[in-house]
Amino acid sequence: MTDFKYKPDGEVLKNFMKDSSFFRGIRGPVGSGKSVGCCVEVFRRALEQKPNEDGVRRSRWAVIRNTNPQLRTTTIKTWLDWFPESDWGNFHWSVPYTHHIKVNDLDLEVIFLALDRPEDVKKLLSLELTGIWVNEAREIPKSIIDACTMRVGRFPSMREGGASWSGVICDTNAPEEDHWWAIMAGEVPIPDHIPREQATMLVKPDNWKFFIQPAAMLEVKNEQNEITSYSLNKKAENKQNILETYYPNLIRGKTKSWIDVYVMNRLGMIQEGKPVYPDFVSETHLAEEEIPIAVGVPLYIGVDFGLTPSAVFGQKVRGRWLIQSEIVAIDMGIVRFAELLRQEIATRFSGLDIYIYGDPAGDFRAQTDESTPFQIMRGAGLKAVPAPSNSVDLRLESVSSQLTKMSDGKPAFMIDRRCPQLIKGFQGGYCYRRMQVSGERYTDKPEKNMYSHVHDALQYLMLGAGEGRSLISGQKPVKAFNARKGFDIFKRSPINRNKTSFWNRL
């Protein structure tokens, strides 16, 4: 057999490879050796496969990446760096990309698939496999991971003795806080907005394990707790295989969010496009405490339809918009979503005057039983009406105009921290996509992504409530209402006026 030498550099990487759990995931900084470790793990498990009656160790693996360009330029390149064609046989460069290694008694077939190719997804769902390696799992939806678990342990067949080990291995850079990886690893709780049946699928099974590598660098801070520089982390893994200047050069010109994810190995979002709302400032527009419900003040709800329906709830009190909560559903039809919305209103906002505004296209786009979304909403007892316009410019202006306003010396727009998707969108997730041309050029309209739906809902709320309506008809926005200063949402009765309440501070 061709000479092959590998030794994992790092305790976490070593423990990951020694473990035999059905599902194993390793998260680490860029350059931490996790992808190479997974390459070697595929090969090692193939070597450990027991021989069949003919004395051949047969196994078949699939390697998955989100897109075909990423698969070819990153994943396959890493694989061939360790298993070059000159030593291990020809690589089949037509779809599906395949490397069939036959050396001595080893017969290992590795199939490389990209999820942006429909034929590859169809192929994955039909394969009989020993194991699967998911490269950069933060880009892969949980539904694909679940599909992977159903395709492994099916090769070799039981007639040949079955697989000595089977399962799914994954590597990734740090995902966002609400990603399935972070939830199942136990780093963050299951979000309240996720429906119960989906939440059960995010509970970690006993035979799943997650491994976290140390950060590649450490933050150097001054007396004011401000980051002044970065230093190399002595506990970082894979140091023997990279230059000492690798990380210092890597972080030059990078944003803190980029460094946090790719170097510090922290959960978070990377701002890659141009933020839609550059005037949003977390320290200014995020409420430090939960925003209570103002009794006697109308509640405005904005709704976006589609397969990721969203709703945003807000009240205008003393000239200030208070955005109190959001609902973001995943892969849910409008019938179920209408019921979810009705329950939320009955539970948290009963007794208030309710005004619901939705996507104007909802009266024309047929769904499910050929009823329009607005008809379905009304059938559920929700008096929803189309927002006065669907102009993207007007919708954006209805929100952005509030971010720079002040009311009695305080921000005219405040959002509750119980709106995680909305907040992440404001912080850069809702953005204009950078165009693949030279220079700083971006798309004219916000990118459709996981944050756009809830932000569309917010825009319908603001536009329906009158913000931006003056741009259409010259009408004034809705009148602000005053909440009782002695109101306590928890007691539903007046409280001691001497006590400093939310409304006193508003």
Compact overview of the structure:
By secondary structure, the chain is α/β, with parallel strands linked by helices.
Structure explained in plain terms:
This protein is α/β, with parallel strands linked by helices and 506 residues long. It has three domains: 11-212, P-loop containing nucleotide triphosphate hydrolases (Rossmann fold), CATH 3.40.50; 217-262, no CATH class; 282-493, Nucleotidyltransferase, domain 5 (2-Layer Sandwich). Helix content is 30%, strand content 21%. The protein has helices at 11-18, 34-48, 68-82, 85-88, 118-124, 142-151, 180-184, 196-200, 246-250, 256-262, 282-285, 334-348, 373-379, 392-403, 420-429, 452-464, 470-473, 502-505, and strands spanning 23-27, 57-65, 91-92, 97-103, 106-114, 131-135, 167-172, 208-212, 217-221, 227-232, 274-275, 299-304, 310-317, 320-328, 354-358, 384-386, 406-407, 410-411, 413-415, 431-432, 487-488, 493-494. The strands form six sheets. An eight-stranded mixed beta sheet has the order 3-4-5-2-6-7-1-8, with helices on both faces. A hairpin with a 4-residue loop joins strand 3 (91-92) and strand 4. Helix 14 crosses helix 16 (452-464) and helix 15 (420-429) packs across helix 16 (452-464). The longest helix has 15 residues, at 34-48. The radius of gyration is 27 Å and the shape is globular. The protein starts with 10 loop residues before the first helix and ends with a helix. The relative contact order is 0.11. Mean pLDDT is 88; it is low at 483-499.
